[in-house]
Amino acid sequence: MKEKKIVIFSGAGISAESGIKTFRDADGLWENHSIEEICNQYTWEKNYEQVHKFYNQRRVQLADVEPNLAHEIVAQIKEKYQDDCIVITQNVDDMFERAGCRDVIHVHGELTKMHCMSCNNVFDIGYKEFTIGEQCPKCGNSHIKPYVVFFGGQAPKYMDMYSAFEYLQNEDSIAVVIGTLGNVIQISANLELMDCKKILNNLEISPYIDDSQFDRVYYENATSAIEKIEADIEEFWEIE
Fold it and tell me: Which in 8, 163, 178, 191 has the greatest CB count within 10 A?
């Protein structure tokens, strides 16, 4: 049996209150371009300039926002429980890191980094715009992609995520789900057969998540639920 762990899994809802704009508009378009076309593993090179323009905007916007209370308390939980707590996010922002959270598993990549497709080097770019023709600091090639998982692309961090989920087979482990519809990564299906304690926080009911399988459910903003979640974790962790 795997040892008990706390696994915190988050989506866009945890960053929404920081003012981070959603990945797509309601109509799925950005400047009359389909997001699936702009952010697609098979077409991004054809749309090279548009792809970088899109992610440059996202990156510059990121510099103007701050972590919220939910990020900060997750960082405190991680600090308290150390390696017994695993933080996983679908978000490409760096709000957790800026709140002081370490060792975050970003399953869909990181907006502040770039990926050289020639030598596989991943390097920091921070919050600045990527200039077309800019070269990789390691190999000097300019075949560079945002370090973000595109539609149809590989997501190598999923292996780390599924390894973390294995700890949830332990009935003394705790799964915390915050701010996700559960449609990209089907978190409800992943937790269905797990014996652990389960906590859910979303703004509203999602058709992709069966909330009846959770021990505690909070339909409210992440910043208003997070202190309750922190107390729940402490309560569940002490139960043997």
Answer: 8
